[in-house]
Amino acid sequence: MKVNLAGAAKRILERIKMDGDRPVRWVAKVLSETPGERKVVQYRFFPRGRQAHSKPLFCCVAKFYQDERGEETSRVMETLSKEHQRPVSLLAVPRSLYYDPGARFAVQQFVEGVPFPELITLPNSRRYFVLAGKALAGLHARAVPVGEIRWLSDHLIDLIHPHPLLLAEQIPSYRSRIDSILKALHEWEERVVDHRAHAPIHRDFHLRQLFYGDDRVWLVDWDLFAKGDPALDVGNFIVYLTTRLPERAASSIDAFLEGYFSLQPADLLKRVPLYRAFTFLRLACKRFRLKEEDWEEKVEGLLFRAERALR
Fold it and tell me: What Pfam families does its record include (predicted)?
């Protein structure tokens, strides 16, 4: 995705009106990119003439979009950051500073916290999994006036790329298995999901979205925010730990659920297998899309795990 970093820096400076007319230089670092959809860039602004290691005057994150979705994300973040404020909220949401409709980018607060993937290597890492659970429970507990209600059929379109039916079309040998998984997912939803369970949900909750700073858990990347079954976030995180930290998944999941269910009712657990299966299917389609090394074997294994979760 092509972005005019210099032009955006100029627009940010004009909007922020930083420190009068003092000359300022900027440094940009690309944090992530989803080809054809968005690019995430960290900007740091320094007094001109200062040494490279001097403290910046201002830091922010700019998210560049191919379409107008950044406007809604900015509105969501503005609302959530106000709802989850000290002293009552462990969860912290970065502030939306503004949205630039002309250039289709959103400017957000830069989070200074320590990334959770670094914290889990510490001897007391269990504490951070407990805090992650409590923070997610806090998100699910707070009624907010933003977010569209999304059901399983919506999640299949919004979150899985390519759609599982396209995977079945491309690899006919998977057709019957994918049809069976989709049928079972919908049957599970009809049987166990009540619209009264709908709550604010992140829909991409995992360790790389989490930071710890100022005694709070910071959660970033709100592009997929919606209202839906909170068990989706729980199931997604459990699968993330299962696939990314297999050697310590059991203890990590135990700590996470301890934190989550200290604030949320345990009856949600009966719906988690539905979203574990959904997430394994999501990962199978991702492996097919990326076609990295041994992708066929990985797709096969993930489909098997989706089937097993629904038994």
Answer: APH (PF01636)
